[in-house]
Amino acid sequence: MGITNAPRPRQVAAWASLACIAVLLTACTSSASSAASSASRAPATVGAPSTTTAPPSSAGSPSVPASSPGTPAGFPGVTASPTGTDTFLAAAQDLNGALLHEPGCGGYGCALSSDSTTFLASMKWSTWSGTEAVGTGIYKINGCNPDCAAGHVYPVAAVVTLSQPVKVCSASGIRWVWSHASFTFPEGLPQALQGQNAPQNPWTFTPLIAAAQQSCS
Questions:
Q1: CB neighbour list of residue 117: distance below 8 Å, 6 or more residues apart
Q2: d(C-alpha 176, C-alpha 162), whole Å
Q3: Which of 48, 99, 129, 185 would staple 88 via disulfide (CB 3.0–4.6 Å)?
Q4: How far apart are the C-alpha atoms of 49 and 44, rounded to whole Å?
Q5: SS (H, E, C) the chain
Q6: Integer angstrom CA distances of residue 40 from 29, 35, 44
Q7: Bond into 165 cis (ω within 30)
Q8: Can you tell me the distance from the alpha carbon of 99 to that of 89, in angstroms, rounded to the nearest whole number?
Q9: What are the residues facing 155 on neighbouring strands?
Q10: pTM of the full predicted structure?
Q11: Are 157 and 187 in contact (CB under 8 A)?
Q12: Distance (Å, rounded) from C-alpha 38 to C-alpha 26?
């Protein structure tokens, strides 16, 4: 009886050993799988380049130059203030007509008024800057008696000072045009041009100023 049952303890012990080995193998395999899984996931989460695109920086962008105050866009040769080279006398105070620079006013002369009753002739300019022009010559004045069509024209020696240039805008650029004139008469005025018949002096070209402002609006 004792001999028949003797092998059972050894068999149980063998099964127990196999079970222990199986448990150890399972644990090791699980640990190895976990480590491998962690290792395979690591590149995707650690040190992976970001896919978010940052907004472009404006620090290196070239700046767009802003226009100067009082400088209309589209007009070449714009100057902020007049100079002697870009200041003119508008013949007959017409901004669409001839713009004269230091004119000699030869022949019959340069019309100064819009109704052609006053002219400058034989002019010599001692000053022509951005603030004033001073010249000597002949100031031809129609006495308009009995009317301007039949009036006598008086040539009077005069010193002419042009001043107060105004800005005029056109498709060709910006120009400055005299808007004020004053006169001295070294030899005086003829009797017919004295008193209430005296020429306007000083003279502000009001219609020209209004037209100049409108051209730049």
A1: 141, 142, 144, 148, 151
A2: 12
A3: 99
A4: 9
A5: CHHHHCHHHHHHHHHHHHHHHHHHHHHHHHHHHHHHHHHHHHHHHCCCCCCCCCCCCCCCCCCCCCCCCCCCCCCCCCCCCCCHHHEEEEHHHCCCCCEECCCCCCCCCEECCCCCCEEEEEEEEEEECCCEEEEEEEEEEECCCCCCCCCCEEEEEEEEEEECCEEEEECCEEEEECCEEEEECCCCCCHHHCHHHCCCCCEECHHHHHHHHHHCC
A6: 16, 9, 8
A7: no
A8: 6
A9: 140
A10: 0.64
A11: yes
A12: 18
Joined tokens for residue 98: 């001839």
The answer to whether the CB of 154 falls within 8 A of the CB of 192 is yes
Structure tokens at 21: 């080995």
**Residue keyed to tokens 């901004």:** 95
> Whose CA is closest to 176, among 91, 86, 95, 106?
86
**If you search the block for the tokens 């308009």, which residue do you land on?**
144
Tokens for 14?
Answer: 């063998």
**Tokens 């002219």, located at residue:** 119
Length reported for the chain: 217
The tokens describing 181, both together, are 């004139």
Q: In the structure encoding, which two tokens stand for residue 68, read together?
A: 């100067």
Per-residue tokens: 155: 């040539």
Interval 109-157: pLDDT, tens: 999 999 999 999 999 999 999 999 999 999 999 999 999 999 999 999 9
